[in-house]
Amino acid sequence: MTDVPSISANATRIVPRLDAVEAGATARHDKTDRFISIEGVARRFPSPEGLSTVFEDLWLPVRRGDFMCMIGHSGCGKTTVLNILAGLERPSEGVVIVDGKAIDGPSLDRAVIFQGHSLLPWRTVIGNVAYAVSSRWPKASRVEVEDRARKALATVGLAGSEHKRPYELSGGMKQRVGIARALAIEPKILLMDEPFSALDALSRGLLQDEVRRICTATGQTVFMITHDVDESIYLADRIVLMTNGPRARIAEIVENPLPKIRDRAGLHRTDGFYEIRNHLMDFLVTRSKALRDREVEGLDPRQPSIVRFPTLRQ
Amino acid sequence: MKASLRLRASFLSLIMLVAFLGVWQIAVSGVGKTAAMDPEYAAMMGDSATTGKSAIPGPIDIAETIWGHLKDPFYDHGANDKGLGIQLAYSIARVGIGYTLAMIVAIPTGFLIGMSPLMNKALDPFIQLLRPVSPLAWMPLALYTIKDAGLSAIFVIFICSLWPMLINTAFGVASTRTEWLNVARTLEVGPLRRAFTIVLPAAAPTIVTGMRISIGIAWLVIVAAEMLVGGTGIGYFVWNQWNNLSLANVITSILVIGLVGMVLDQLLARAQRLVTFPE
Lengths: 314, 279
Fold this sequence. Notes:
A: Rossmann fold; eight-stranded mixed β-sheet; 23% strand; disordered N terminus
């Protein structure tokens, strides 16, 4: 065991070699489960004092069909990690392997839902989704493109608003269009950068429900950035904790003990919910800084330690 | 009375117009016999000497002149006597050709400058140096090289329309939001499709603003250019009427030039509304 300050009593920390965990824990853990593999990635920026490192030596595997949330404070490089996954930024060192291939720039296989909705204001709602669809299937007929766009909009509950312009929509509806645009191209991976942070609490909840429903139904692999602890517990299968930047690193991966089928209303009454919530809050409040400042012995960046809680029943 | 703002403003405009015309008419009309003189001499000297009537025509004279032009705008009685309509058509055609040529050059070049920070920096000193030059300063050079007065006027219009369109296009293209470009990047949109489907619509409001500034400048410059090159056009007409001492025709021209300028500006204002996207 490593010397890491305060950890919840019930949680099990698994630090040994990742291979051992894979062999021991469940049958699903094998090499093909590294659907996305972040390998030794670093990001440095030139600064007046030379190169400043946002993060370095970052290793992270993501399984196929996993809903992974990354949480950490501002400045830890979460968004940079997501941009590297999207191919919008290049890492200073290291590679990201997706489905067996090192990524080289953006791809239609990795759809991004941006923090701001990023809709094209001169296009209608359906025009925005159709733009993505016709990029994905350039040879598709107009009818087919429109059909797919319409279906994607219906999935996020926007049937009937196809011909509105983005400025006529509320923030929540705009973000729904963004989600429809990402889903319409049937990506292998969905990347989300704090997609609900600009929304009011009610729309945020509704949209979280929609996203959870759609992604579990289709087995979508998702990587999402957030700094909302409750959001990560409700949505994620696994939660990656980043220490503070600069020189941020992955502190641990928390396996979410909630069952696949979740009930949002009863979430906070579930036994053990507060234990995991407190664990995450403690991390954000104290450990995220302590872990950066203290060199933890025996912590192998290639094998982030995994924290497990006893499975919860709702 | 609670009339709309628009109605009240129109009413006020009308009062101002009537008051202005009234004062004008009174100011220029005669005051009666000012001096006893030989009737033959008086007939030769005209009203300005005999009754104190101003040489400046009054609104009624102008109305008569305008009516005369409206009755027959397109007559052609030789080189120095053409209808106002024909003269205007020449000017509009010159502006149209010079402006269109400027558009063909400025918008693609502006795109290039806006897309490439290198080209932006490299071309900046040339643009900064040439932009403040009065387009009429190019006239001698144009006359010498082109050797045709009409074409030289078109060239001057081209030069003066070029800069606002070029600068606005470059600025509009360069300030396309990164989030929209990132959308195109994540969708693997090729450079040509990106230019037409993302950059062009994003920059269109700025580009059309540049076009609107350009058409205004072009219409200002054509009058001066035609005064210089002579022959045809509304600018030449004004100068010709000055030589004829026909101030009624000069004032009529001023009104017509203003009217055409207003129409051109409104056309581009309409285009501007078409490409502007609310957010």
